[in-house]
Amino acid sequence: MESLIKSQHAQQLAGHSSRDGKTPRTTEMVPATSTGGLTMSSDESMMLKLIQQTHSPDAREVQVRGLLSLVEDILDRATLDSDDSNASMLPLPTEDKLMQSSMMSVLDSVSYAIDRVACEIAYKSLTGSDAHEITMSVFEHLSSFHWHGKLVLTLAAFALNYGEFWLLVQFHSKNQLAKSLAMLKLVPVQNRVTLESVSHGLNDLIREMKSVTACVVELSELPDRYITLEDPHLSRIISTIPIAVYWTIRSIVACISQINMITAMGHEMMNTQMDSWETSMLANKLKNIHDHLAETLRLCYRHIEKQRSSESLKMLHSLFDTTHIDNMKILTALVHPKNHTTPLQDGSTKRKVHLDVLRRKTVLLLISDLNILEDELSIFEQIYTESRRNLQGIDGKSHMPYEVVWVPIVDPIEDYERYPSLQNKFEALREPMPWYTVDSPKLIERHVVEFMRERWHFMNKPILVVLDPQGNEASLNALHMIWIWGTEAFPFTRAREEELWRRETLTLNLIVDGIDSVIFNWINPENYIFLYGGDDLDWIRRFTMAAKATAKDSNVKLEMAYVGKRNHSHREHIRRIGEAVRAENLSHSWAEPALMWFFWARLESMLYSKIQLGKADDHDEVMQGIKKILSYDKLGGWALLSKGPEIVMITHGAIERTLTVYDRTWKTHVPTKGYTKAMYDHHHDEILRETGKPCSHFDFHITARSGRIPEKMNCFDCHRPMEKYMSFACCHDDKLFDQDENYNF
Fold first, then answer.
1. 550 and 714 in contact (C-beta within 8 Å)?
2. What region holds the Sieve element occlusion C-terminal domain (predicted)?
3. Mean pLDDT of 508-521
4. Which candidate, 180, 198, 212, 190, places its Cα nearest to that of 256?
């Protein structure tokens, strides 16, 4: 930091000494009106130029931090009463022998300068010199020191004077030497009114002097590599340090002058109280300067953190692009333990463990914020637990080829410290998890979160990143593979995904696999099965009653299941519909909301999986079927009809009309065509001709970036390119369904 100020100083002097007499191109160090929030008068701007002309630091680097601690200790203990509770409880900064040795080394090099400044201020204040003149004299004497050095040395000179004054006050009644010395120096030890006036009059000013000095020293310690002239805003606000040093030294001069005035006049001051106007004015001045410097520090630290985060981010990208013999470097970079030697919690034992438990294993990073759905966690836990059970060896231990680690993200992380509710939520989410969890969101550093957003497209919704035993990225999001095939998708690579899809066709088995054994047991060649969804209970009643009537009249066995609706914001409304379906015995319906969520999550996962594999707009049979279900669900009621595993048709709510007109239309064709063929022909040839085919409609949540939203998509009916719209949806789970809103643009 000091090099930055010195560089600015050199540019300033170069500008002043421009030989052609023209205005120098170099930007003025401090504007005449305001500098980064610190207002300055034109007189102060001129004064700043004079200060800069005295500044000629050499190569010496004085370690002032320890000296400042010693000075602060003296000033904190310099009080009216020696047994003052606050002062007596203060720790001694030089009790450590190594610290004492270091302090003596510093004092050996600067004691002459401190004494000289103390004498200079004392002498000139007694001879009636102007405060500004004395302050500039101090700058001249300390010209070879950096700005923070000037300030700390001058404050040390004040501590010599002020500390001695109060030491004599505190011990004059206990020590004859102190009593005689106080008399010789004319310290008014018997006049408590005067002493209280000194103490109360200077306390506020001394506190601000210490605060400003601490800020200047802290600014000087900032790393030069991050605070550079290339950032004009930071350069401009940091350049106010010289004026801060000036006003602090001038305040020190005022304090020493007042102390010296008291001792010089001796008993003539017995009935006089200090004039507080000057000290009050200076205290207010320094408070404004301190507030500015504190804000400057905040901006600098934010800038440094941003730069360091950028460097760490580049290093993390580079680390993932490098080949490793195992996964430990990768895992350590993601879950930075710092002093946390056990950054994980074992979900089965609830014990803290080291990252070594993951060495050379395939690791599934379940990354989410703290708003992860309970349904999602419930289904994931079922799949995980079943997998462990299936892979249990004869020794009773699970021999899973992979481990799961929950990586909780709170961004910004400051919120986690600020709101206890987030801490409680984290603990509540972690408690039932049987897999490994990162011990605290605080272990995930800011640049790691940014890395996850950039490279893995994390946008708060859960993703499952798979790292192989060497730390390579096997999959940027294997959640959709888990939802479709469970752990059969191991090792969750693209090649495995393509292999699994080659075995699949659009059948009812694929649509409901792993969700509900009741529906799965229905699937045989003699059974007709309707899966249907929607949020209109009246439509559901008409549809189910008409379907049952047609099946009974046609003498076919028909099973039906209500699967709800994709939109999770209608959760409460859909739950009530499911209850009504079961209560009225309209059809089979899942009582567990998690199963309904899982049904739609699997369909979405199939869509995303196909998109990632580049199958978004070809004539893939599975893709076309999934598109239909998701699109018709958006419109309202819909139904899927199958005979055994074979899907006959997927259609929208107009199917209810087809079933309703059974008696007077397609009933006569059932004996010759069969139940499904007769229904299909009438629905497509008559009903759709009257009602028209609805427009295809898909919604991709913005967080689905991890699933690679396609740039374009064709209609599954006419195969023409579909138009894109921007949609804003109200997604709260409100019990009043009609309050939800959705706007398309």
1. no
2. 496-732
3. 90
4. 198
Rounded distance between C-alpha atoms, residue 240 and residue 684, angstroms: 80
Q: Is a pLDDT exceeding 90 seen at residue 107? A: no
Q: What distance in Å separates the CA atoms of residue 323 and residue 469, rounded to the nearest whole number?
A: 11
* Residue 131 CB coordination number (10 Å): 18
Rounded CA separation 467/365 (Å)? 8
Question: CB count, 10 Å around CB of 281?
Answer: 13
pLDDT (0 to 100) of residue 350 = 93
Q: What is the pLDDT of residues 246-282, one digit of tens each?
A: 999 999 998 888 777 777 665 454 444 455 678 889 9
Buried b (16+ CB within 10 A) or exposed e, 435-450: bbbbbbbebbbbbbbb
**Contact 364/416 with Cβ under 8 angstroms?**
no
**Contact in structure between 707 and 611 (CB atoms under 8 Å):** yes
Predicted local confidence at residue 30, as pLDDT: 34
Give 554-604 pLDDT, tens digit per residue: 999 999 999 999 876 678 889 999 999 999 999 999 988 889 999 999 999
**CB–CB of 625/512 below 8 Å?**
no
The tokens for 334 are: 């993601």
The CA distance from 114 to 118, in Å, is 6
Average pLDDT in the chain: 80
How far is the C-alpha of 619 from the C-alpha of 596, rounded, in Å?
28
CA 623/CA 608 separation, integer angstroms: 10
Contact criterion met (CB below 8 Å) for 343 and 439: yes
Q: Strands 352-353, 463-467: parallel, antiparallel or unpaired by DSSP?
A: unpaired
Q: How confident is the model at residue 186 (pLDDT cuts 50, 70, 90)?
A: low
* Amino acid letter for position 254: A
Report pLDDT for 36. Answer: 47
- The DSSP string of 663-725 is TTTGGGGHHHH-HHHHHHHHIIIIIHHHH-PPPP-----GGGGGG---S--B-TTT-PBPPP-
Contacts (Cβ under 8 Å, ≥6 apart) of 71: 152, 155, 156, 159
Residue whose C-alpha is closest to residue 731's, from 719, 721, 743, 717:
743
Give me the DSSP letters along 167-210. HHHHHTTT-HHHHHHHHHTT--TT-HHHHHHHHHHHHHHHHHHH
Cβ pair 441, 410 in contact under 8 A? yes
pLDDT in tens, 30-57: 333 344 455 556 676 788 888 888 888 8
Quote the CA–CA distance of 463 and 704 in Å, as a whole number.
10
Say if CB 18 and CB 24 are below 8 A apart.
yes
Task: Give the pLDDT band (50/70/90) at residue 203.
Answer: confident
List all residues 6 or more positions away from 623 whose beta carbon is below 8 Å from its beta carbon.
607, 610, 615, 616
CA-closest candidate to residue 206, choices 66, 296, 78 = 78
Distance (Å, rounded) from C-alpha 218 to C-alpha 676?
Answer: 81
Token reading at 148: 């923070």
Secondary structure of 145-158 in HEC code, one letter for each residue = CCHHHHHHHHHHHH
H-only helix segments in 32-96: 42-53, 64-77, 85-88
**Tokens representing 118?**
């103390």
**Beta-carbon-side half-sphere exposure of residue 416 (alpha carbons within 13 Å):** 19
pLDDT band at 192 (very low <50, low <70, confident <90, very high): low
Q: Say how many Å lie between the first and final Cα of the chain, rounded.
A: 51
Q: Please, are residues 415 and 370 in contact by the beta-carbon 8 Å criterion?
A: no
Provide the token pair at 127: 């001879």
Q: Please, which residues bridge with residue 353 across strands?
A: 344
Contacts of 640 (CB under 8 A, 6+ apart): 508, 511, 530, 531, 532, 629, 647, 649, 650
Which residue is it, tokens 């593979």?
Answer: 481
What's the residue count for the chain?
A: 745
